[in-house]
Amino acid sequence: MVNMEKCEGGIRAVFTDGSTVRGSVLVGADGPTSIVRKFLAPTTHELHRLPINAVGCALEMSEEQVNYFKDHVDPLYFMGTHPETDTFVFWSLLDTPTSPGNPYRAQVYFSWIACDADEELLKQPLLDVFREKGRPFFPRLREIVDSLPDDTVVTKVNLVDWPSVEWDNWNGTSTLIGDAAHCMVIYRGEGVNHAIVDACQLADTIKSAFDGRISIKDAVNEYEQKMRLRAKEAVETSRQAGHDGHCYEKVDKEGSFALLGEKPV
Ligand SMILES: Cc1cc2nc3c(=O)[nH]c(=O)nc-3n(C[C@H](O)[C@H](O)[C@H](O)COP(=O)(O)OP(=O)(O)OC[C@H]3O[C@@H](n4cnc5c(N)ncnc54)[C@H](O)[C@@H]3O)c2cc1C
């Protein structure tokens, strides 16, 4: 989409090939770098960058390795903070083998508070950075990190969020859902949950409009009011969890509410 324009009865989206689509409401569900958000919040759409660096990759694990994690850590998912380096680790299973003997797939992610030394560190191949950050963890994780093939694709993850600031919904003809509306960092694992609740709440309010109980404009405003109340707090708590997750003292001794507390959705 390259443009959006008000038109008779609603809104029109204009695409790169010149084609257009008209509708009553244009919903931006286009993720953290949303183009729709640029139109609705032209001066405030930019993402906020957190002072955290992170690297992650998808990797293969044997059944024996996965069973060790299952029996000693968690069968699907774990996160933690290293007591000496304060590096944060996140592991989750992505896929199980389709036939016996084939490997499992998992993802591993390490993050740390950005510091001056990172400028040199991040000039190295990212697989070396990944290994350096992973080696201090428990031996079975170190073994996995050390045995990664040299062609493993490691990605630098940018930690960004957007605290759902007020936007102009063009008189109720456009709105945002999911990460476009409230991109949050991963430390509470809440982003998808909110995206699903957004879709349900927006569908409910739009249904009320089609049933003739309220106008489309009021439906969009009602959705945004409910969503913002819930999502703004989630973005802020996730940001706090991002800070707490890199402080072992805070997690271990004080018990970070942001990181460990119950999720509202
Ligand atoms: C490493 C990592 C781990 C995570 N773990 C969790 C977790 O455990 N639990 C959780 O709840 N959340 C988690 N999240 C967050 C979760 O992934 C997001 O909140 C969720 O994907 C948001 O969904 P979305 O549909 O709003 O956006 P997206 O998933 O970003 O989808 C947007 C879609 O729009 C498409 N798009 C964008 N621009 C255009 C365009 N111009 N034209 C056409 N299409 C376009 C994109 O290609 C994409 O398919 C994690 C995120 C990361 C990065």
Automatic annotation (TrEMBL):
Residues 8-237 form the FAD-binding domain. The keyword Protein biosynthesis does not apply. GO terms for molecular function: FAD binding; monooxygenase activity. The keyword Cytoplasm does not apply. Its cofactor is FAD. Keywords: FAD, Flavoprotein, Monooxygenase, Oxidoreductase. Pfam families: FAD_binding_3. InterPro entries: FAD-bd, FAD/NAD-bd_sf. This is FAD-binding domain-containing protein. It comes from Penicillium olsonii. The lineage of its organism: Eukaryota, Fungi, Dikarya, Ascomycota, Pezizomycotina.
